[in-house]
Amino acid sequence: xxxxxxxxxxxxxxxxxxxxxxxxxxxSLHYGMGVFEGVxxxxxxRGTAIFRLKEHTERLFRSAHIFQMQMPYTAEELxxxxxxxxRANKLESGxxxxxxxxxxxxxxxxxxxxxxxxxxxAWPWGAYLGxxxxxxxxxxxxxxxxxxxxxxxMVRAKxxxxxxxxxxxxxxATTDGYDxxxxxxxxGYACExxxxxxxxxxxxxxxxxxxxxxxxxxxxxxxxQLAGELGIEVIEKRITRDEVYCxxxxxxxxxxxxxxxIRELDNRQIGVGHRGPITKALQEKYFDVVYGRSAAHADWLxxx
Length: 304
Ligand SMILES: Cc1[nH+]cc(COP(=O)(O)O)c(CN[C@@H](CCC(=O)O)C(=O)O)c1O
Description:
Elements: E1 7-10, E2 13-16, H1 27-31, E3 34-36, E4 39-44, E5 47-51, H2 53-66, H3 75-88, E6 94-102, E7 116-123, H4 131-136, E8 138-146, H5 163-175, E9 180-184, E10 190-193, E11 197-202, E12 205-208, H6 218-229, E13 234-236, H7 241-245, E14 249-254, E15 258-265, E16 268-269, H8 277-290, E17 301-303
Parallel strand pairs: 8-9, 8-15, 12-13
Antiparallel strand pairs: 1-2, 1-7, 3-6, 4-5, 4-6, 5-17, 6-7, 9-10, 11-12, 11-14, 14-15, 15-16
Residues 38, 166, 192, 195-197, 214-215, 217-220, 253-257 line the site of the ligand Cc1[nH+]cc(COP(=O)(O)O)c(CN[C@@H](CCC(=O)O)C(=O)O)c1O.
């Protein structure tokens, strides 16, 4: 990812991609306290637009607040910077990665005295879990690793260090031939994927785990609202892994994953074994919204 043309916004300035570096004694590199976002820009009929930029930046600031990281820029400055990065890299669509991290000004567990740095990169990123998966559905496996307990780390924050748990889970699942992992919460209920929120469909109703231990997904919130607009009842509840086995449909949501159908969990076929009708309807409505084909949510699109 480091050897490519383009520009990265680093601490207030656009720098050539290859020159956007940091010292090996960067505090966050050693101790894992950084906060980040994943945001997508789409090519809409009215030009390139960033989807729910405001909500993503608000979450970035919430994550920093939770970890007492003093952000050196305002939300508005970072919103504008994200648009600038898309323009500078001439991207019609792409994936944005804002990251705030502690620099190399200080070593030792305490980051007190280290400076908070901010970078924003963007690159083209297609179907996160594969094009085939978007139609046919993916195969997932319940992880042997448990999702964070809410007082072991801060699950409301999208924090770099939290992703060691996701890496372990995703690595285990993909090594065993699956497309992604499903993590259970500390009490054994289905929680979320390594990088996605979970939904299941049963008897025409949509269910998703409550937010106790999972990331407060922006795509999750979007899909819940779109489902309501389609007249589909949405229920947040504790979901057991065998409720997923017996679901009529299941899918993951995420900025990168978008709406990805799940056809199998732990070698149990889910429903008819491919993308179900409600998943298809929600996927189509989601793409209508992000590509600007739906006037209903034009306010969710920040033109670049
Ligand atoms: C653990 C987790 N749960 C849920 C979500 C969905 O959140 P949202 O994007 O707000 O709907 C994500 C985003 N995962 C990001 C990281 C992907 C990556 O590999 O990096 C993403 O989708 O951008 C998670 O990382």
